[in-house]
């Protein structure tokens, strides 16, 4: 039975699109040409078993041309293995993808398989547009026997598995190793604090004459993560309220940014707004060597390294934390894959989910472009093919396994509205442009943010 989506939910999905666009939407880095490793050749097609009826599937995803090329090759490998199954594909840039999927949901014509994001999962599952995968896991159609439980559970809603993680990532501070070496400074400890970060940025600026850290430190993502360091989160579990009572913690963080801007150790807020508040990580100050540290997501290192040049050397480092606090890092699924409720062939769709998760040859083609594979067996298999950026991402996430915080609930649908109408214009910009005190702005933010969250 085909399910359609209500006009009200169409509005929610449109909001979700804006959320991810404004808040560091999953980035598809360009191909890193520094590696000469070749993808394996496609094997000859296996003969179709007698009596098998042809099956036609559709798969949709967002991403860069590099992702499209890799995914199409993986589809071709799947069709070689299962020649009675044909997969047609639809892909788009991120801005257009969710609009397209929402339109198809409204018309009852979703593809069999679709790439999903953590921020959308609750709405899509709650509107009965996704098929639970539990039966296919239980009968072995999707083999998750060697996959860590936390990587599986990120796709569960109310105990049911609606999406399978295609790769993990986490927030990070990218360090320019050559800049630290030139300054004669050791790399920070993995459990460094924000006080350590401030001193490190000041010292790098003093010794090198560049920014100690680039723009983006005023991001709403770091606001949320700061409170994770205190054992809280930006939002209540239901997303209808702020999730913390202590406004002073973020007021103190803003005071640190003011000190760093005053010292010239990070870009001024005027520079930050004009030059660095953009979706593309390639535009950030660390790329041309104007900053020694940069706050991004771990899967964005490939794009940074590719733009900066193969001769550069970068190191991924955990986010700083409050003094005496817990890790501000958590493992976020970079993307999921789901089977939609409109699929006429969910069994065969589950076969593709298993293939893209567990098949070594296809993952040698995909090469962790969507994030670190959830399968330890695949991680080991693709290591010899990794570029330096991919290898560094793998090493970083492996080390982070020892010290991280639990995955928070998905962001509320109103996050984009909160970011664009309250967080940036009423909190961080007035404070960092020195038009309001941190305490005054935090009090105003609490009032207006609460109203925004309650109205969604």
Structure, described:
The structure is a single chain. With 456 residues, this protein is α+β, with helices and mostly antiparallel strands. Helix content is 44%, strand content 12%. The protein has helices at residues 7-22, 65-81, 94-106, 121-126, 134-138, 149-153, 177-183, 194-208, 220-228, 248-263, 269-276, 301-308, 346-358, 360-366, 376-382, 388-400, 415-432, 438-454; strands spanning 55-62, 85-92, 113-116, 156-157, 160-161, 164-169, 171-176, 293-297, 314-317, 332-339. Helix 2 links the parallel strand 1 and strand 2 (85-92). The two termini are 30 Å apart. Residues 1-45 have low confidence and may be disordered.
Order of helices and strands: HEHEHEHHHEEEEHHHHHEHEEHHHHHH
The number of helical runs is 18
The order of strands across the largest sheet is 2-1-3-10-6
Radius of gyration: 22 Å
Assign a percent range to the helix content: 40-55%
Rough outline? globular
Tell me what portion of residues adopts beta-strand conformation. 5-15%
The helix/strand class is: alpha+beta
Terminal-residue CA separation: 30 Å
Low-pLDDT segments:
1-45
């Amino acid at each position: 039975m085909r399910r359609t989506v209500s006009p009200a939910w169409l509005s929610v999905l449109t909001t979700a699109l804006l959320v991810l666009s404004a808040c560091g939407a999953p980035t598809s880095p360009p191909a890193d040409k520094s590696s000469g490793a070749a993808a394996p050749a496609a094997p000859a097609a296996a003969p179709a078993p007698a009596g098998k009826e042809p099956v036609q599937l559709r798969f949709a995803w967002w991403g860069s041309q590099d992702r499209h090329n890799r995914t199409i090759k993986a589809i071709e490998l799947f069709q070689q293995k299962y020649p009675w199954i044909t997969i047609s594909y639809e892909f788009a840039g991120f801005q257009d993808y969710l609009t397209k999927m929402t339109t198809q949901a409204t018309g009852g014509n979703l593809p069999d398989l679709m790439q999903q994001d953590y921020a959308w999962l609750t709405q899509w599952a709650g509107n009965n547009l996704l098929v639970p995968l539990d039966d296919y896991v239980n009968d072995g159609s999707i083999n998750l026997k060697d996959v860590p439980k936390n990587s599986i559970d990120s796709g569960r809603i109310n105990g049911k598995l609606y999406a399978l993680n295609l790769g993990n990532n986490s927030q990070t501070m990218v360090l320019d190793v050559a800049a630290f070496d030139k300054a004669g400074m050791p790399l920070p400890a993995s459990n460094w604090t924000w006080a350590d970060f401030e001193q490190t940025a000041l010292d790098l600026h003093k010794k090198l004459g560049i920014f100690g850290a680039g723009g983006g430190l005023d991001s709403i993502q770091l606001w949320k993560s700061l409170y994770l360091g205190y054992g809280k989160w930006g939002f209540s579990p239901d997303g209808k309220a702020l999730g913390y009572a202590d406004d002073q913690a973020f007021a103190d963080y803003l005071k640190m940014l003011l000190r760093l801007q005053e010292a010239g150790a990070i870009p001024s807020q005027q520079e930050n707004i004009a030059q660095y508040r953009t979706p593309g990580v390639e535009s950030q100050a660390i790329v041309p060597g104007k900053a020694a540290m940069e706050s991004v997501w771990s899967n964005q290192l490939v794009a940074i390294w590719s733009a900066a040049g193969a001769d550069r050397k970068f190191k991924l480092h955990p986010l700083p934390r409050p003094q005496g606090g817990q890790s501000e890092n958590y493992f976020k699924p970079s993307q999921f894959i789901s089977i939609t409720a409109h699929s006429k062939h969910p069994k065969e769709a589950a076969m593709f989910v298993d293939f893209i998760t567990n098949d070594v040859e296809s993952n040698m083609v995909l090469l962790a472009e969507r994030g670190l594979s959830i399968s330890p067996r695949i991680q080991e298999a693709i290591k010899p093919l990794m570029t330096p950026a991919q290898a560094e991402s793998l090493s970083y996430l492996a080390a982070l396994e020892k010290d991280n915080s639990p995955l928070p609930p998905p962001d509320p649908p109103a996050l984009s509205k909160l970011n664009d109408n309250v967080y940036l214009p009423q909190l961080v910009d007035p404070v960092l442009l020195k038009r309001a005190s941190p305490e005054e702005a935090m009090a105003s933010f609490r009032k207006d943010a609460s109203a925004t969250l309650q109205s969604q």
